[in-house]
Amino acid sequence: MLLSEVVEKPPRALTPAFITFMIIYTVLISIMSFTVVASAGGKAWTLCGFFIPPIYIFMILEVLGRISKRFRLNPTQLVIFLMTMWFIAGRYWVTVGGTAEFLHYLLWYGSPPALWSGVAAHPEWKEVLFMLPSWWIPHDLDAIKAAWEGKAPGVPINWGVWIAPIIMWSIVYIALIIIHTTIMFTIFGPQWTEVERIGYPLTIPTVFMSRLYLTRDEKGRSKLFTMKEPAQRVFWIGFIIASIISALETAGTYVPIGVLGAFAGIWGHNITTLPNYTRGILPGAEFCIMWRYLDTVLCIILPYSISVTAVVTWLIIGVIWHTIAVRTGAISYSPGTECWGQFYYGFRPPLPYVVWTASGFMFALGVKLAWDARDRIKRVFSTLRGPDLLVGDLSVKNAMYLFIIAVIVFLAIWSALGLNPIMAVIWFILLMAWTVSSARILEETPWCQPDANHGYYLMHWYVGAALGFWAWEPAQKNLSLLVANHGLRVFMNGRDVSHSADIIGYLYNMAYRLKASIKEVYTAVILYFAVLFPVLFTFNIWFWNHYGFKNAPVNGPGVGWQIPATLNSGVLAMTQWWYGGLDYSTIAIGTILGLLMFFGIPYLSRWIPLFVYFNAPTLISTLWLIPLNWFSALVGLVIKFVLTRILGPKRMAEIVEPLVAGTLVGMGFFYLVGAFIIIGTISIPNLQLYWRP
């Protein structure tokens, strides 16, 4: 909603009864989800979090609503209720019901609640990690060993060494959530929803279902489960067809025998055979495919610029440049680099495009997005000393007061950890640029942003050295540098809480489109995490003492390959991980190039019409994961073009949204079956095997 002074007040959602229910529900599902994921073994990537798809939630709500009107949720309550599961499950939960990286990544030992485990997994880290104070990471080796291996039966947990870290982790994470929620609800959410009108692709199915659920016929039934209108019929046709194929895919995956096995992976395939036919002519050219069909389906409804940018980027960089680099000898050829070759060619001069992407391009995009929203930013910050403004029914002045407090608390804790206060401000600017860029990529495209540990953290290394906060060369045991490394590794890894900004932005968009209370959704996000973090962090330590952190699927001793490089860069060594031979000029060039592209190409599109098909977030995402993006974009582009020519733009617009929504919902309908199979055959046996009373 545009900043204004007059607003129609939506129905109240945060009643005492609803708040009480949500707190209890949040605690229960977070503990349940954490437990089953932590014990899921090699299937942790399949079972990433809350595993009941939204369609089942709507079915339950419909049954309860027909029993009694008291159980019918208003728009605000519906957004908040879905939010509680969304954050635990991850971003794709609202798209296909499957889950993806978010809160389960607190298992990863690069996060503050798990950083202590590095001492147990890698004893050589002790020299570095114990530079941090004991109120952030326990210094008691016996307590760490008990949580890493599982305590001896009957021995009580030493809570004394954990209480202070749990409190500090909770405060820092809650402060970050307040920061993310405020900037997304007052600045970038309204800017992208109402001014730039980007697509928000991942919520297309859930918003469509929500609108139908909230609309009732004369008998009080939601229109989601009737077929009286054409859009509803198209939705359910897409759902039925996709769910049948989903059933075959599920059967083929978990019962891979006979004809069923042929259907395994029907909704996604890794195709690695094409390079066998291309490498003779195009050595090094990227022809591997990681085809997620949900991306293809979403590309049918998204603007042409997204698919075109993905395909052109693959063609120019993944095919033409890789081949030229090999043919000219600019980069030595290594057999097999036709698959995920960006992590080979993109880390080497003369065109280290992945390093640019994960560092300078991300910063440049953040600068461009802030520039585009400059008028809104000025108006929002002017409320601190001037008259109030409203976003919907949300007081911007009150939100900004809370934002300022959160920023002060956030930076104060990092400064107390040892980060130089001046550098803390620079570090925070880098963090916000990354956060906004990450959110925009995930809210405009169906794909992923880079991980910060692939280059972005090196930006502060050179800035701090230039300002004299640490030396240019290791070893130096500089606590300020270690804390800066640690902070960017944690909050910008693109996996866990760094994803909160994009989901929060989606929540604003959903609240706006469903005419929910912006104020109450804003409040609910903060309240949700204020409850969730202390509970989850406390349960985290309790669980590991009984289960053993080393037994978790994502925390084996071999998992932390990039973490020591990130934490230790410039402290005891200059371990830049994959960046041997690359210096600061690489990142500086990437930043300048990114600024020139992201500011210059939209300007040039006034004279060169083809540039209107350039999409900066898609460029970054595709350079980062070429095999994931190019083929799904190509297929989606072709389907969209053909359907538009056959149906015409008007008919296409009427059919495509319900068809895409129904297809995506149907894709994930049987995800629940696979989840229960994993829980029954892996999670429960692992709990029985490793649990120590």
| Low-confidence region ranges | 1-7, 260-264
Please, how many helices?
Answer: 27
Tally the beta strands. 5
Classification by helices and strands:
mainly alpha
Molecular shape: globular
Helix content: 55-70%
What kind of sheet is the major sheet?
3 strands, antiparallel
Major sheet: arrangement of strands: 1-4-5
- Cα(first) to Cα(last) distance is 53 Å
* Mean residue pLDDT: 87
Report what the structure shows.
- It is a single chain.
- It contains 27 helices and 5 strands.
- It is mainly α.
- The protein has a domain at 230-352 and 588-666.
- It starts with a strand and ends with a helix.
Task: Write a brief caption for the model.
With 693 residues, the protein is mainly α.
Task: Please describe the structure with a list of short key phrases separated by commas or semicolons.
three-stranded antiparallel sheet, two-stranded antiparallel ribbon, disordered N terminus, 693 residues, mainly alpha
Write the layout of secondary structure elements.
Elements: E1 3-4, H1 16-38, H2 54-67, H3 75-89, H4 93-96, H5 117-121, H6 126-129, H7 141-149, H8 163-195, H9 204-214, H10 230-254, E2 268-271, H11 275-278, E3 289-292, H12 293-301, H13 304-328, H14 342-345, H15 353-372, H16 374-382, E4 390-391, E5 394-395, H17 396-417, H18 421-444, H19 457-466, H20 479-491, H21 500-513, H22 518-547, H23 563-568, H24 584-604, H25 616-624, H26 626-667, H27 671-690
Antiparallel strand pairs: 1-4, 2-3, 4-5
